[in-house]
Amino acid sequence: MKIKALGVGRIYIPLIKPFKTSIRTVESIGDVIVRIESDTGLVGFGEAPPTEAITGDTKNGIIRTIKDHIHRAIIGLDLQNLEAVLQAVDLSITGNTSSKAAVNIALYDLWGKMLGKPVYQLLGGFRKELITDITISIDEPQTMARDSAEAVKAGYSTLKIKVGSDSNYDIERIRAIREAVGFDVKLRIDANQAWHPQEAVHILSAMEKAGLDIELVEQPTPAHDLTGLRYVTENISIPVVADESVFSPHDALAIMERHAADMINIKLMKTGGLHKALQICALAELYGMECMMGCMLEGKVSVAAAVHLAAAKKIITKIDLDGPLLCKEDPTVGGPEFTASRILLNESPGFGIIEIRGVDWD
Questions:
Q1: Per-residue pLDDT tens for 3-16?
Q2: Are 331 and 11 in contact (CB under 8 A)?
Q3: Which of 111, 132, 178, 280 has its CA at 20 to 30 Å from residue 159's CA atom?
Q4: Number of helices (H) and strands (E), helices first, in the chain?
Q5: 3-116: CATH topology
Q6: For the chain, which residues make up each domain, given as ranges?
Q7: Residues annotated as catalytic (active site), given as ranges
Q8: What separation in angstroms does the CA of 295 have from each of 98, 193, 281?
Q9: 22 — pLDDT class (breaks 50, 70, 90)
Q10: 346 vs 91: CA distance, rounded Å
């Protein structure tokens, strides 16, 4: 089955409420959509969000990379040799992980449809249901407490709390949330690289002493500072998750060898798709380091791919795949079913995406 055509488009999806972190505020999703068609008429879909602050990839940059480099590298290739096609994508240009992820996802979707099987079964098939957390944007303590209480009322039992814009305020934020939701709800915090190592230890130790019961902390220190990340990991009892520090299997190996963190957060936009994400899973299995499956602020197509990977692999024990749940509408037909915190996979081939409405095709 040969690759016949590759199309690129744009889609805009408003969010239910603004998404705020220590590094950005976003009011709508504006993603790039990829459509790959085979010579047999099957179609695979992919997606990538422009997350400049993390990956460095802009919307126009993603589109140009796909059109000018990846397109000509894979047209005419036979998808029955998936490994060779994925290698062609990787070798088409250096970096540009979001562009590669969008195409990689579409190729896996098409591959699953070619074989008539859901991708999660082809990759391991460990389970078919996941429970995700929901993100609480950074804000005033009272506002975050209200948003947290609303999330719990809606059925979420794990909250991912954004912190880091004012370290002196972060303990107040978590205390207000804990008072609002009680102690039956798990709280994860994500600093998005906002603290220096000593500051992180000070804040997290204070949270521990205050009895705020934090399940884990994501990327407390700058991505490049593995020594600082290790310092935090060694000096607090809260499990530390490396996120922005890990783009590639090589990055993951560096974390594991130095035990700079307790867990790895895998995101397809950082790894360039499922192929290298699977390599990180294999390393994690070897080193006995559990993984979280996360996403950027992105729509259902690319999150569906992350859902299938998380469902396939036992080593992925924490789920942070709430992107579609933050959107006002769902323009996709098919794919996993998102019902509050519960994500249910079906037996549709590929990732199950049949159609995407409202795409502005180039």
A1: 999 999 999 999 99
A2: yes
A3: 280
A4: 13, 17
A5: Enolase-like; domain 1 (3.30.390)
A6: 3-116, 121-356
A7: 162, 267
A8: 12, 16, 16
A9: confident
A10: 33
Is the CB of residue 131 less than 8 Å from the CB of residue 157?
yes
Domains 3-116 and 121-356 share a fold: no
Question: According to DSSP H, which parts of 20-166 are helical?
Answer: 59-65, 71-74, 82-91, 97-115, 119-123, 141-153
Sheet holding 158-162, edge to edge: 134-136, 158-162, 186-190, 214-218, 240-242, 263-266, 291-294, 316-320
Cα gap 41→174, rounded to integer Å: 52
Cβ of 89: how many Cβ atoms within 10 Å? 25
Entry pTM: 0.97
Spatial contact of 53 and 223, defined as CB atoms under 8 Å apart: no
Region 295-319: what's the mean pLDDT? 97
Angle between helical axes of 141-153 and 167-181 (0-180°, round to 10):
30
Q: How far apart are CA 128 and CA 345, in angstroms?
A: 5
| Residues making up the chain, counted from first to last | 362
The answer regarding whether domain 121-356 maps to CATH 3.20.20.120 reads yes
CA distances from 289 to 33, 239, 242, 248, 292 (A): 33, 12, 11, 16, 10
Q: How far apart are the first and last CA of the chain?
A: 25
Question: pLDDT per residue over 75-115, tens digit each?
Answer: 999 999 999 999 999 999 999 999 999 999 999 999 999 99
